């Protein structure tokens, strides 16, 4: 390597002078050939750093970092490991703020062979000989980062209290209690019929809590077959299953670690799983299926149900101890028919949202339509109101909706002969619709009326595109 200095003949120089010239040359090479260089002492504190390195760390004033611990400035550093082991790490990758560098780290010894510090150099990220390798590594790294970002977006709360519409006294009380719950870290139990906004409130509580930057993970207990529930909640060790899950997987509690888990339709939890959940809530430890090992987690639980849990406790269908454990901060979500004063602002918000999502022109409501909407029982609550507004928006040609736009259409036109499969399909859809109506939207009750399991009902709802009914 050419040092780029006009050096006198080494033999002409006294030893200390030669040392100092060579040292200067060495640092000069660092300056020009490498992105950054740093030297730390045995306390892992910075004793020297070049401007490139400081720039990469985003530090404007070099003097301010002299004496700082390197692992505070650069949490990914392995320089402390070099100090501890005395072993160099000559070639490695280090990622800082989404940029990746090739780094080399080495111990610095005194004449007696004692470690007196460690040095690290970062090569330019575009350093020619390594460029193809670095480019490939960077692309992979960026891809991984993107996947992680998407993943965490999926696991984050989308709604806040600002999205909870309603200024009537019942809704105001619900929001106030929610905000109070957000300031505490206790278990919350949301009680309300289907479509009253339990998940919306759960997300808002999480988003306003100290766990907001951590995951929000939701699980609808009623939608998972009993046999898969435990693995879904607590995870499974590799080999606990055959087939697709042979590699093992994390349960929702693990995924929610540090954040909030939202357990919807908790009343549908089978008794055996209730006992396991109670233990998890008491110990904050999970045991993945087949793992034989306890894993500590730190999760705030928000549970929700549309069922009468005290009556289920009475009937021996729900464990009393679990009920008390969950019922720390109960919040009742009023059904829409008890807060007709909220219909107008809710409809306005929903119509704006429908137009935004569908691209259809935004509709308004005539005073008669508003009065009509406020007089309806809305067994499916806000979700049903939204569906009604969506349907009317799609079907009406005029900008202002009237009650006629919401009334059921007249008798269907005479049908052409159907295939048997189509006739069965329509009859099944109709049976599901009326069971849901009779159960006021409660899917477990609807499944019971239909004489099928909950999971089968959910499958059929998804198949017919009726999930939102
Ligand atoms: N107060 C509200 N303001 C605005 N939108 C609301 C409100 N309450 C509910 N919604 C909307 O209604 C729909 C249903 O709400 P959500 O899924 O939170 O209900 P849920 O009680 O969890 O229902 P289920 O028990 O069936 O799962 C969502 O689109 C939600 O955004």
TrEMBL record:
What SMART domains does the database record attribute to this sequence?
AAA
> Which keywords does this Swiss-Prot/TrEMBL entry list?
ATP-binding, DNA-binding, Nucleotide-binding, Transcription, Transcription regulation
Q: Residues in domain Sigma-54 factor interaction? A: 164-394
Recorded hits in InterPro entries, A to Z, give: AAA+_ATPase, AAA_lid_NorR, Homeodomain-like_sf, HTH_Fis, P-loop_NTPase, PAS-like_dom_sf, PAS_4, Sigma_54_int
- An example Pfam family from this entry, by short name, is PAS_4
Q: GO terms for biological process?
A: regulation of DNA-templated transcription
CDD domains found in the cross-reference section: AAA
Q: In the record, what terms sit under GO molecular function?
A: ATP binding; sequence-specific DNA binding
- Highest taxon above the source species: Bacteria
What is the protein's name according to its record? Transcriptional regulator containing PAS, AAA-type ATPase, and DNA-binding Fis domains
Organism, by scientific name, is: Chitinimonas taiwanensis DSM 18899
Q: Cite the source lineage.
A: Bacteria, Pseudomonadati, Pseudomonadota, Betaproteobacteria, Neisseriales
